[in-house]
Specification:
With 288 residues, the chain is of the alpha/beta class. It has 10 helices and 15 strands. The chain has a 7-stranded mixed β-sheet with strand order 8-9-7-6-10-12-11, sandwiched between helices. Strands 2-1-13-14-15 form a 5-stranded parallel β-sheet.
């Protein structure tokens, strides 16, 4: 099989447990790109932080962010956007505030989070992260629903952190029963993403592939999280990191080394070293 795209999650795949990027991963991506492989990121992270990592990796094309709700190479010119409208955002947040949970409205330009009892020192805290000319604000408010009354927001994603997976599943079932406009994506460890109906990392990746003229069979997907399973099962080659949970490894076609053991570099070199550059294959009429 000739592969034309390398798609990767970020946390637990490209970044180690300290949130740092290994130089070996950067070298591996440069090697794949030298072969003419289209490299992209598929992540639940917001566009701003994902774009900074993409720049560090010299990935200039489109990346799939906000769990598939925001696909872009530049903030001001997204290829695809699907947001939860203002009214539903407010209603969902109002419902979630009945639980003792951390809620984050993850917009493409800022994040607003609620203050939990354990986060009293965070009230009113604002941090700014710079990405070229882009500033991404992250701040905390005492009541998100009150904040939304004053400043309504249509958002690509709402993130929720529950105490247990059971609480997350219970809330997800309730929300799915109450609203046809949203979908709840469970990420494990009590974490849940809420996105507009029809949004997912898989659908985002397939949308990008269609625009680039790449079939899903020509995609290598590397991940380490529960929400990467559907992508690994759908793509031509699903690769699980060695540090991934058991269920993720069981869904994969190939298990590489852990992020601490430079699993991305090992996989890329082993997989692509025997594949001729894409331009050469096109010239020889092996692929179109």
């Amino acid at each position: 099989m000739i592969y034309r795209m390398l798609a990767m999650d970020i946390d637990g795949t490209l970044l180690n447990h300290n949130g740092r990027l290994n130089k070996e991963s950067k070298a591996a991506i440069e090697y794949a790109q030298s072969k003419g492989i289209h490299v992209t990121l598929v992540t639940n992270r917001n566009f701003s932080t994902s774009k900074r990592l993409a720049k560090a990796l010299k990935i200039e094309g489109y990346i799939v962010t906000h769990s598939g709700a925001y696909i872009a190479s530049k903030l001001e010119k997204p290829l695809f956007v699907n947001k939860i409208n203002e009214d539903i955002t407010y209603e969902v947040v109002n419902f979630l505030e009945r639980f003792n949970v951390q809620i984050a409205i993850v917009h493409e330009k800022f994040t607003v989070m609620n203050q939990r009892e354990t986060d009293s020192s965070m009230l009113g805290k604002i941090s700014w992260q710079r990405d070229s000319k882009l500033f991404y604000g992250k701040h905390y408010v005492e009541s998100l629903s009150d904040h939304l009354v004053e400043k309504p927001v249509a958002t690509p994603k709402i993130e929720v952190a529950f105490s247990t997976n059971e609480e997350a599943e219970e809330a997800g079932l309730a929300l799915n029963g109450m609203y046809d406009e949203v979908e709840c994506i469970h990420r494990g460890e009590g974490k849940m993403d809420i996105v507009a109906k029809g949004v997912s990392k898989l659908r985002g990746l397939l949308y990008l592939c269609e625009r680039l003229g790449i079939t899903r069979e020509q995609v290598v997907m590397v991940g380490s999280k529960i929400d990467d399973i559907s992508l690994m099962e759908c793509c031509g080659l699903g690769v699980a990191m060695g540090n991934a949970p058991k269920e993720v490894k069981e869904a994969a076609d190939w298990i590489t080394r852990t992020e601490a053991q430079n699993g991305v570099q090992y996989m890329v070199k082993e997989l692509f070293r025997k594949q001729h550059p894409i331009d050469f294959l096109k010239k020889m009429n092996v692929i179109k």
